Amino acid sequence: MKLKSILLSLAATSALLTSGMAFASGGGAALKHASIDVTNQEQLLRGLTVFTEVCMGCHSAKYVTFKGLMDYPELGISREMADELRGEKSMMHGLTTDLSPEDAQESYGKVPPDLSLIVPGRRGGSDYIYSLLTSYEHDHDGKVPDGNYNAVFPGHNIAMPDPLGWLDHDEADTAELEKQAHDVAAFLAFIGDPHQNERRALGKYVMMFLVLLSIVLFLLKKEIWKDVH
Amino acid sequence: MLDTIMKTKLFAWVDRRTGAEAIIKSQLTEYPMPKTCNWMWVFGALAVTVLALQIITGIFLAMYYKPSAELTAGGFSVAFDSVERIMRDVNFGWLIRYMHAVGASMFFLVVYIHMGRGMYYGSYKEPRELIWIVGVIILLIMQGAAFFGYLLPWGQMSFWGATVITNLFGAIPVLGDLIGQLLMGGFSVGDPTLNRFFSLHYLFPLLLAALVGGHIHALHTVHSNNPDGLDLDQSDPKNVVMFHPYGTMKDAFAVSVFLLVYCYIVFFNPQMGGYFIEVDNYVPANNLQTPAHIAPVWYLTPWYTILRSFEIKLVGIAAMGASLAILFVYPFLDRSPVRSARYRPMYQGMVIMFFIDVIVLGYCGHSAPTETLKLIGQIATAYYFLFFIALLFLPKIEKTRPLPEGV
Fold first, then answer.
1. Residues 94-153 of A with CB under 8 A from B
2. Residue A41 belongs to a domain with what CATH number?
3. ipTM of the prediction
4. All domains of chain B, ordered by start, with CATH?
5. Which of A139, A163, B182, B260 is the most interior residue, by most CB within 10 Å?
6. What is the number of other CB atoms lying within 10 angstroms of the CB of residue A136?
7. Cross-chain Cβ contact B253/A220 below 8 Å
């Protein structure tokens, strides 16, 4: 009996240690909370537009196909829209940029990363993406050129020049830019794990079944053990 | 139900040719287990459950996984692409892959608790030394299987974790380079390494299955320990119940509770905040870019801390080896005639401290190294070894409490 309580307290201790270090290795400035909802179809579609019109100038998301954009119920774009987006590319082709890696290397000094897994692949996830897009600032020390200084990027010197035009934007545009950043962060969070909504939906039934199964097996165990003292 | 099956003609036919009835009786329906065994005794059955889940999900993953480091568009590789294909395009591939990835962590969690139970109640002591020793071999094979498996997605942490560990072998005098090259299939981690690790990752679970058979056979020869650590008369119905249906029902309930926890993680939090699937492993392997902080997955971090606690690499490797090797002689270091920590006040404190110590070691190994953490890690390392060495002298000074007469 005693060992059980010890193990419980050990588990509690380790949980405390875990929660304390969740944000230990961020980029410096605290991340803004985006509270992304990856089930909001309207927002995901707005995010898709930001992605294809802004991000895809340089970035790809090669694991997301045009057919995928039609098939995922969270997006469900029409055949016509898919045809318009893909141009000459096949339906099974990924969302890839037309900027060649060589040209990107020459222009930006770095090949832009593929964005299919950018949300699960960064500490802070969608909060990080949202914060990154809305944290372009002037370097107080004047060392990093405008458009390359980002408060949340590790080391602050980011190769990607301010994609949404956040730096020195009009006060009146703040809400619109924040919305674009939020929308594209939601889209990227969705494509990072496109079956996540299906997974959570199915998970509820699995949980319900297992709770029932546990109750039945507990009663069965109790019945079988009732004459053991 | 078992009775009904055993009365059929078909069963009689099989029995005459295999002796199935005698096996069922000796291993299930007439195999006695102490009725005082508490819920800590279910973790063995849970470990077998996870092993089965890992093997089954692994077989399906291997149908789609391609072990090739050949580069594809965007800095990815054939291996990475095949994992993403499983996650995105294969029907329920995401479920199978998350089950396998979460299962690895759950396997270690269950096995560590199982070992902790054995340590606390003295299940490693005479006459169960061999069960413990086979168990330690199982742990080593598990660690190997997990290490090989972690390379397969060919992400940043896969690549750099494997690079760090295989480089360790290089520090071993004389044979080091040879061992490192044999493991890697070359001079650095690359495509041949991936193929090798995939092959070994498929082999090791088969070894595990065989060793688990040995572990259970050794157990069924000497029978289960009990929370008081008493030598019970196994033929006295006052002390024991039959494994089937009593043990099997208790285990079945435990398995369903375990599945509840496991499925909750699989369906709602499969990355477990970067503990079960590390954030850096969503970034494709890049041999030109070292991640800011390389750390093994949580279940290997206690040993990683022991390794890092020494300035000289070779000493660190020796210490890490010793920390695992000392587990083999644990039953022989501890000569106290009393088994259970319930009746050993000093041992009880020591072993609880040891559990906390291993968690502290794990925490230090997972975090980015700082001076303070390094010192804490060194103290924890010292206690790890001190615990085992102190066992040699413990029976001379420890006043054990009187054991109860019976159950």
1. 96, 111, 113-114, 116-117, 120-123
2. 1.10.760.10
3. 0.93
4. 33-288 (1.20.810.10), 295-407 (1.10.287)
5. A163
6. 25
7. yes
